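Hello,

Our lab assistant flagged a job as stuck in the queue for most of the afternoon. It eventually completed. Since we weren't sure the result was trustworthy after the delay, we are filing this so someone can double-check. Below is the sequence as submitted and the structure that was eventually returned. Let us know if re-running is recommended.
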Amino acid sequence: MSVLMRCVGIRKNFGQQQVLKNVNMEVKAGEKIGLVGNNGEGKTTLANIIFGKENKDGGNIVWSNEKAKIGYLLQSTFYTVNTINDMFANNKDCIKAFLKASSQLGIQKVKDWDKEKFKGLSGGEKTKLALANIWSDKPHLLILDEPTNHLDFKGIQWLIDEIREYKGTIIIISHDRYFLDETVDRVIELQEGVSTSYKGNYTCYKKEKQHRYESQLNAYIVQEKYKQKITQDINRLKTWSDKSHNGAVKKAVKAGRKKGGKEHYRVKAKKKDKQVKSKLKRLEKIEIEGVKKPISEKEINFAFNDPSKKGKRVLEASNITKIYGDKILFKDSSFYIQRGDRIGLFGENGCGKTTLIKAIMGEKNIDKGDLFVSPSANVSYMSQDVLDLDKESCVIDLFDITTREKRSETQILLANLGLDESIIKKQIKKLSLGERTRVKIAQLILNNNNILILDEPSNHLDLYSREKLEETLEKYTGTILLASHDRYMLERICDKLLVFENEKIKRVEYGFKEYMEKIKKDDTKKNEANQKLVIQNRIAYILGELSKYTKEDPEYHKLDAEFLELTRQLRK
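-- returned structure --
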């Protein structure tokens, strides 16, 4: 593959903070690259520099084709009514491809929408329209920043299929592990302002990174033991040298040397001095060129207190119905949730998952049926909107702190979430989306309730934080309702599902992985049944045609051969 673009020694500072120190990466035409790293490591900054939206402070970007077209999908929070309108208005040259892509993503009749329709778009719908717009333009390089945030599983699968077929080059910034596993063939990690390349998808990257970490740590431990030995040798040689210098004359007399005895011991001392200098130089070289201690993952600690265990039945829905205008979200649906259930909410965007959550919270009414929520149910709810926090408030002011003990508890929790003293005194508007998400999780934890309702909790969290959150949710003994498009999180946390399908909500008594395997098996059976029907119809047609010919006719043998092949396929 030919090289499309090179980043050479890219540097970027924001005030006193050096975000990118020395980024070197070579991007080949047709590559699918995952750009990963913890929140704040400069992934979006690097993307902005490559796109030309941000100026670099040092280094060079070298393009093999100066006229290379770049498409850039921003995070969905950056798309407003005006940008969506402009996107649609400016896409007249590629309107057919745009409408086809948006239709495949489940957004119909976009050309008939008015301004009011654009105003009511969800995060998922904004992302889908932006994706359709970029795809229809067919750029040489696609940069996708968190493309799966707010996308439903149908949208994610469409995107996976399109990326696999796409002939151009794609750089993907994502914290969706399943998506990275299915799409990229190389991972570039940003850590402490430096880039490191790994072959393969996300799973390969994690294994290789762990292997490199263990190898480097082992080499570092061996080196430190060697440095310790050199230091001991230096101290010993210095002791011998000092003794030789201080006792040279005395030792010469004792040895009975009348001439040159003193000089003999001084020569020995100088040899020791030379050895000391040699070992000091060796130690200095190791400090400069030797193996550095590998960087370990930052510690983030999510910890929910053990919830009180009150009552077995938490929620029960009897024939509930919810309608918006002429759209039925769900109707005549009945299900229940018991204490300790870990339930995933599964369905396409717009199917009513968030509406059900708000009904449980008492923020929306059900049109028909009964929705019983136990009086003993203390619910903590985390919405997917990180922009609903008061932008002007400081982080610490968002918490109900009435005592010194409460302040200490809150500060320790925020520190465990990676939000130190300098961050908690900042205004919300100055925080990254990932930091805002952690603030919301802190609020959730401090509520200490027995039911957690999480609506896309992993949006904007980096990979390490997602895994730590999963570990914590696994240990939580209360009831969990999880709406997420993070496939790995659903598989790991939920052992039951509420499935939104065909205007119904039904409870499924097994987890997400088993459910998807069952769907795949059912689809295979349907396809086989359809194929069988087609073959049987063709066989019936051939039998009818064979009666028109004699065995001597060439057409008879041609049809007979096809008949034998079709019966073989039918048996199979």
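-- support follow-up --
The delay was a queue issue, not a problem with the job. The result is valid. The chain has a mean pLDDT of 82. The two ends are 42 Å apart (CA to CA).
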